[in-house]
Design brief:
The complex is a heterodimer of chains A (386) and B (247).
Chain A (H helix, E strand, L loop, with lengths): L1 H31 L3 E6 L1 H4 L12 E2 H10 L3 E16 L2 E10 L1 H6 L4 E4 L4 H5 L4 E4 L1 H8 L8 E4 L2 E9 L14 E5 H9 L8 E2 L1 E6 L5 H15 L10 E5 H44 L1 H9 L4 H37 L8 H27 L3 H6 L2
Parallel strand pairs in A: 4-9, 6-8
Antiparallel strand pairs in A: 1-11, 1-12, 2-10, 3-4, 3-7, 3-11, 5-8, 6-9, 7-8
Chain B lengths: L1 E14 L2 E14 L3 E5 L6 H8 L7 E6 L2 E2 L5 H11 E4 L11 H10 L5 H14 L15 H13 L5 E5 L7 H16 L3 E6 L2 H4 L4 E6 L2 E7 L2 H19 L1
Parallel strand pairs in B: 3-8, 3-9, 6-7, 7-8
Antiparallel strand pairs in B: 1-2, 1-4, 4-5, 9-10
Helix pairs in contact in B: 3-4, 3-5, 4-5, 5-6, 6-8
Classes of the chains: A alpha+beta (386), B alpha/beta (247).
Chain lengths: 386, 247
């Protein structure tokens, strides 16, 4: 009985956590913007002197443009630069992430501007000192005040806040995506990053949005091929950049919760088996205690299957009682886990029903042997038993 | 017309490594409406004989025909159906379900007939009334006296309207006065046409029957009609008293 309770509770918690985690990952993938490929320079070869005369084969704005133009299935390719900078307004200051982006970035990340203006190609062309800020940045710098049109200083350069970004929440890697300021790409390069003579339009990363999930692998291969050509890499040379599918990276994170789920399902199945054996025990004792009753029932015309059914029903009733109790405990436990461990849990009625159904199945499975034993009794011997 | 025809019945039990013959060739015919007492010392085979008559056990050898049907070799489910439809059992120790009410106990055989609850209830109540326990329908066996419990058991045996009532030492657990009341009920039922086979080791109880079959060592040693005169002389007063009490 206790085993059944624990087993069913574990099943309920397991499903709640599993579903919760799946929902969270789905939400994160959504927040990333679906169907994204990230291209960044390969760190392994970055500092190597053996690299060719062309210098470090960094990514450039031209690479982004070429990917956007030449590869089928690519919706948009957005180059970006990033840096950590000091943001100041009056006496308030805050350290946060600065990204230099083009308007393409907004469509790649499906990132909307909820107040103010969007960034225009014009802003980039004329290297405007304008900035769009995320909600965290806004809270840290402005509190409740209206940031639109305000001037903030980034590394002592004055910028005008022209827009407020939609909230994105935590990223797959756990950092706050809203602690961010977006400035035009060229502004970022000129004011903060600097240029290199070998590659005057270098960028840190190219974010690519592609059209079809199914062709992600092909698109990635085509990007690799194109970059290979553009950077004149010889066969046998290592890739100088990394092309990765962000949604897949997000899925990796799901494996943690999968381990937890696996653990819980192990607990659940062991408990259910132990509970089932407990029920079998109870039923065997019951059958032994009620041999005379069984004999009498057989004498007045019960068939073997009537007796079998009777004891199976009793076993299933026991198991169901345990199951319902376990489901209640499991629901409470899942909610507790959710609030204590900050773990998203989703309790689904059908999952609870499934768990109770499991308990009933255990009752049938482990109740069968005692019930069959009862049904196989010979009426005279059963009646003769004291 | 013969209700029970038993022909050269033999039955053995496996005890340890060997076989013990409990019945060694019993042939007997019981007609409809007879009231037969089977007597004999313990080990005489009378209980084995009763189990076979009640279709609780199948004979090792020989044939048993109940109401024209050869019972030997039937499937256990068919035997269950025959017990349910044709035979009512009354036991020495009543064998009532302790947690069930008198009414539920009487209903039990009808449950296995797949009868509707309402119909079942009506039949069971009517039968309890016939044994004088209509007002005890809601009581559990523990709340009833021994005689009342045995009357509940009789109602349970009769609720299916069987052809044959088998009573195995029905008065064995009762005091003699209550035993007489039970026998009065049997006499009345027999008067209404019910065939009764009664196993007992008490001569006075056997004397209530119309015919006494004596067993010894697995064989029938005597089969004699009871002289009505003798019985009425001995027990008439008792009997009518008991009978009236029950009514």
């Amino acid at each position: 009985m206790l085993g059944i309770i624990i087993g069913v509770a574990a099943v309920v918690v397991m499903i709640a956590i599993g579903v919760g985690a799946r929902e969270r990952i789905a939400a994160q993938i959504r927040s990333l913007g679906a169907n994204l490929i990230s291209i960044s320079p390969g760190s392994a070869k970055m500092g190597s002197v053996r690299l060719g005369a062309g210098g470090a084969p960094r990514l450039s704005e031209e690479d982004a443009a070429a990917i956007g133009m030449e590869i089928p299935g690519v919706v948009v390719a957005a180059p970006l630069l990033h840096a950590r900078e000091q943001f100041t307004i009056g006496s308030t200051n805050w350290q946060g992430v600065l990204r230099g982006v083009t308007p393409e970035y907004f469509s790649a990340r499906e990132w909307r501007v909820i107040a103010g203006q969007e960034m225009t190609p014009e802003d980039n062309k004329r290297v405007a000192n304008v900035v769009l800020i995320g909600t965290t940045m806004r809270e840290k710098l402005f509190g409740k005040a209206d940031p639109l049109g305000a001037a903030i200083r980034i590394r002592d350069v004055p910028f005008t806040v022209i827009g407020l970004l939609e909230r994105k929440g935590q990223s797959v890697w756990g950092d706050d995506q809203d602690d961010i300021a977006l400035v035009p790409l060229r502004t970022a390069r000129r004011q903060f990053i600097g240029t290199s003579r070998a590659n005057p339009t270098f960028v840190h990363n190219i974010t690519v949005k592609f059209a079809d999930w199914a062709s992600a692998e092909d698109t990635m291969a085509a990007i690799r091929q194109l970059l290979w050509q553009r950077h004149r890499l010889r066969t046998g040379q290592e890739d100088s950049f990394m092309v990765s599918n962000l949604a897949e990276a997000a899925n990796v994170e799901g494996s943690t919760t999968r381990v937890v789920s696996l653990l819980l399902s192990a607990v659940a199945s062991i408990s259910l088996v132990v509970g089932g054996i407990g029920i079998m025990n109870i039923m065997l004792v019951t059958v032994t205690e009620r041999v005379r009753e069984i004999g009498l029932r057989l004498a007045v015309g019960a068939r073997r299957r009537d007796i079998l059914a009777q004891f199976l029903v009793e076993a299933v009733t026991l198991a169901l009682l345990g199951g319902i109790l376990g489901a209640a405990i499991g629901t409470v436990a899942a909610i507790a886990v959710g609030s204590l461990a900050q773990w998203p849990v989703i309790i689904d009625l059908s999952a609870v029903m499934l768990a109770i159904g499991f308990a009933a199945a255990v009752g049938v499975f482990f109740g069968y042997y005692p019930a069959r034993k009862a049904a196989r009794l010979q009426p005279i011997e059963a009646l003769r038993t004291e | 017309m013969a209700l029970i025809e038993v022909d050269r019945l033999r039955h053995c039990y496996r005890v340890g490594g060997g076989l013990v013959w409990a019945l060694e060739g019993v042939s007997l015919t019981i007609k409809r409406g007879e009231f037969v007492a089977v007597i004999g010392p313990s080990g005489s085979g009378k209980s084995t004989f009763m189990n076979i008559l009640g279709c609780l056990d199948s004979p090792s050898e020989g044939r048993y025909r109940l109401n024209g049907v050869y019972v030997g070799g039937l499937h256990h489910d068919e035997l269950a159906a025959i017990r349910n439809r044709n035979i009512g059992f009354v036991f020495q120790s009543f064998n009532l379900l302790p947690r069930a009410s008198a009414l539920e106990n009487v209903e039990l055989p009808l449950v296995y007939r797949r009868m509707w609850a309402g119909e079942r209830r009506r039949a069971a109540l009517a039968m309890l009334a016939r044994v004088g326990l209509a007002d005890r329908a809601r009581h559990t066996p523990a709340e009833l006296s021994g005689g009342q419990q045995q009357r509940v058991a009789i109602a349970r045996a009769l609720v299916t309207e069987p052809l044959l009532l088998l009573a195995d030492e029905p008065t064995g657990a009762l005091d003699s006065q209550t035993g007489l009341e039970i026998m009065a009920i049997f006499r009345r039922l027999n008067g209404e046409g019910l065939t009764i086979v009664l196993v007992t080791h008490e001569a006075e109880i056997a004397a209530h029957a119309d015919r006494i079959v004596a067993f010894r060592d697995g064989r029938v040693v005597s089969d004699t009609p009871v002289v009505q005169q003798a019985r009425s002389l001995g027990n008439a007063r008792h009997l009518s008293l008991a009978y009236n009490n029950v009514r």
